[in-house]
Amino acid sequence: MKDVLIKNIGNRKIVFWGCSIYQDDKNQISHFWKEVIKKEKLEVAFCVDSDYGKCGENVKFHYELKNQKEKYYVIVLCRYYEEIYKLLEEYGYTEHKDFIYVKHQPVIIKSTYDYIDKYNNRIEGRLPQGGEIMFSGYNARVIIGRNFKFHGKIEVRNNSCLIIGDNVVVEDASPWLVSNNGYCTIGSGCKFKKTGLINVLDEAKLIIGDDSTFESDYHFSIQPYTTCEFGKDCMASNELSVRTNDGHTIFDNILKDNVNSKVEISKNRKIIIKDHVWIGRRCAILYNTYIDTNCIVGLGSVVKGTFESNSMLAGVPAKVIKNNVSWSREKIGNYVEDNRL
User: Fold this and answer.
1) Contacts of 11 (CB under 8 A, 6+ apart)
2) Strands 251-252 and 257-258, how do they pair?
3) CA angle 131, 107, 144 (to 5 degrees)
4) Strand partners, 108
5) Fewer C-beta within 10 Å: the chain N or C terminus?
6) What is the pLDDT of residues 113-123, one digit of tens each?
């Protein structure tokens, strides 16, 4: 988006549409644009809104933009409304040349091979019939390996990256999301049964190793700035819940401070699951968890902490109940040295 602005703004001043978002210093989108303006030494003229009640000295009604495209370059911060898009066109503005709609009308792609659009979103590889990719930002990248079998919907937002390996099966993504500056890699040979939800939120990272499998009703909640990694050949039963942070802010009333979701706190909240880990039905894996190779997690466990390899753990909270164990995907298997990872 920054490149579009720099290429087209010329000597014009910036007008923001969406005053409440622009004035919110904690809003990530607002912060991004303020940093761009500062770095590029640009000038903001005022904000506009379609609500008379919000208008005042520095917030004007959108009619001020009519036939003023030679003076102003407009950045629309609010979510997509077709009426705003049509108003700007009616006032003589052309998308990208005269305005940026940060949350533009979603672009939905169904069944394609090697795709790129005017927002610099791209698909590299073949998207099969039965599923769809929804681009709702700029500069997103989706890389698809060979023989991808996919039903459902995946939304990708600004500057996000989704990499899907060879021979991946996703039976029903309902839906998946890779949000702003998010990163998600699904290794080759992974399988996801019906139905499941993956949310990789702003600045977060999810990596799933080759040949890992997930039964139905999985739920990954990869919160902003956090990291989750699964190794190779992991196996999770139904109703897996993975959460890398609390999801809402918690305050310490004595310190009067945020104790769980500041950026510096979130960056240290991780889930690391190494190769060949079997997770039983209806388990919850919480942040600050490390599970080493060849472990077994019993049904209904709530897991948080560090667990050494070749362990069996279970309970609420989960504890090691047996050491020196191995496991196989076979229903009735014989012990082989290959099982002792």
Assistant:
1) none
2) antiparallel
3) 45
4) 134
5) C
6) 999 999 999 99
Question: What DSSP assignment string belongs to 139-208?
Answer: S-EEEE-TT-EEEEEEEE-TT-EEEE-TT-EEEEEEEEEE-TT-EEEE-TT-EEPSSEEEEE-TT-EEEE
d(CA 50, CA 265): 38
DSSP state of 117: -
Q: Any alpha helices (H) in the chain, and if so which ranges?
A: 2-8, 19-22, 28-40, 82-90, 263-266
* C-alpha closest to that of 149 among 176, 174, 133, 130: 130
Burial of 335 per CB tally in 10 Å (0-12, 13-18, 19+): exposed
Mean pLDDT across the stretch 299-316? 98
Q: pTM of the entire structure?
A: 0.89
Question: Residue 96 in contact with residue 118, Cβ under 8 Å?
Answer: yes
| Dihedral-angle region of residue 11 (phi above 0 means left; psi in -120 to 50 means alpha; beta otherwise) | alpha
C-alpha distances (whole Å) from 61 to each of 19, 34, 57, 74 are 11, 22, 11, 13
